[in-house]
Amino acid sequence: MVTEKGPRMPTKRLTPKNVEAAKSHGKRVEISDSSTRGLALRISEKGRKTWVVVYRFNDKKKRFTLGRYPAKDLATARREALDVMDKVDRGVDPMAEKAHREPTVVEALEQFEARYLVTLKSGDEVSRILRKKMIPHLGDKALSEVQRGDVVAMLDALQDQGLSTGANRALAWTRKFLTGLLSEICSGPPLRGPQAAS
């Protein structure tokens, strides 16, 4: 475990059980996975968990964000970490590569999670809905490849589910992301329907 400030702590073999149980105790920490080179679980002061890959490129230490836990599980994070480190071994800087290409839908979602959802009590539920309903179908597509009809269909499906009152806020933020995505990638008039949460 490596804290943002303080001595370096030993790494440990991450398991689904100890990832779920891991705590920050009020200080941001990183738990390095001894089974997968570069992979670490970063835990914020408030307990939000994010997968990162720590690597060196041109003598500079860098962190490549894979996504949040539990939306992304340990097995998936390990596979993606191997891909990242393979690029480093081939002389490719994953962060620079990412910066110079069009983002995918899943990368747009990760930015949305980091910027907005991390501040919400319902953030994990919003991530769960989006990753379950959208990412399997659109996640790997570049934003320009997504069709207006794809996003409208998902908005309609969420509206038709009749979620409970307790899920209304999560649904509103889910709709907010999809509507924002639609405005970025599609032409046409704004969507009608319930107003997204502010």
From TrEMBL:
Q: Where is the Integrase DNA-binding domain?
A: 14-99
For region Disordered, the annotated ranges are 1-31
Gene3D superfamilies listed in its UniProt record? 1.10.150.130, Integrase, DNA-binding domain
A GO molecular function term, named singly, is: DNA binding
Where along the chain is composition biased (Basic and acidic residues)?
20-31
Is Amino-acid biosynthesis given among the entry's keywords? no
UniProt keyword annotations, A-Z: DNA integration, DNA-binding
> What family name appears in the similarity comment?
Belongs to the 'phage' integrase family.
Name of the protein in its database record? Arm DNA-binding domain-containing protein
